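Please, structure for the following, as C-alpha cells.
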Amino acid sequence: MNEPATSGGFGPCQSYRSWATLGILKSDLVRTMPISVSTDPIRPTERQAFWTEAICRSFANIETKPLGSTIVSGHFEFVEIGDARLVRFDSSPQCYTRDARLVSRAGSDEFMFDFQRRGRSTMVQAGNEGTINPGYGVLYDARRPFEDRLFGPEQRAEVLIATVPAASLLRTVPEAERLCARPVPLSGTMARSIAGFVHAAISVPNASDKRAGPDIAAYLSALLRVAAGADHQLSRPDLFRLIDGHLRTNISNVRSVPMLAAEFGVSERTFHRIFADRETTFERRVLHLRVELFKGLLRQASLAGVPIARLAHQCGFADAAHASRTFKDRFGATPRDFRANPPTD
C-alpha cells in the first residue's frame, strides 16, 4: 500500500482507525493483514507531510521533524495482534514528538516499546532520558508527552515497535511508568526470542496465527521484569512460542535442555512440560523442525546443485544417513527421489 494520502477531510494527526475510511482497506482487514507504507513513490517536497499523516493514521498520533539535511525517507509495516499493534519502522533521521496537545487530542491509553535494530534513538519522557543502541529497547508511555529522536551513522534508523493497552501492562508491571525512557538490555536468549517473535509476526503474513496470537503485553512485561532481575512470569503456551522460534532460528546447533531451560528461566521439569502440553517432546519437536526445513530446502530449485549431505548438515542432522532415514520415515521417499520429483502440493 504505497499510495499517497488523499486530500480533504483529514487533519495531520487523526486516529489510526480512520485509515480504513480512505477506502484502501476495509476495517476487518486492518486487523489481519500487514499494512506497508513507503515514502519512495512520493515526491521529495511532499514526503514530510505524507510521512507524518501515514504514521498518525496507522499507529501513533505524533509530529515529525527531520534532523539534518537528509531527504526524508521512511518505510513501515504494521499489523494488529489482538489488542497489540506491531510495527517494523525505519526512517531517515527524524524527531518524533507527542506534546500535551496531541496527548489530549488522541486520548491514548497505551504503552509503547521500541526494539532498536539499527542506528540509535534518544528517548525523553517525564524527566528521564536514555540513548538506545542496537541490542537495547525502551519503554514509553503514550498517555504522556514524549520525544524520540531516531538517527544513526548511516543516516538510517530501524526499530520494532510494540504498542499495548496500558491496563494490560500495568497489571503485571505496576511500576511501568517509572521505567520509561530507560535502556532495557535485549542480550539474553529470552529477550532476543521476544524481539524475533515480534519481527516474524510482522514479516510473515499469517492471519490465523495473528488472531490466535499471544498476549504481547505479557512479553513486554517479561522483558521489564527480567531486566529488573525478577521472574518473567510467562505462561507455558507463551514460552512454547518463544522456545519454538528460538529452535527454528538455531536449528543447526540446538543446545541442551539444561542450557535452554536456564536461558528461558524455567526448571528442566517445566521445560519438558511445555512440550508435553503439545503432546510431544523436546527431542521430537527438534526432529520435526529439522525434517521440515530439510524438505523445504530440497524443494528449492536454486539449491538443486547443493549436495544433499550439505543441506542435511545445515538442518542440524549429524550425517546424511540419519537425515535420509528420518526423511523417508516421514514422507515415504528418499531425499534424492523427493528432490527429483517433488509433490505439487
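The chain has a mean pLDDT of 88. Residues 19 and 57 are 5 Å apart (CA to CA).
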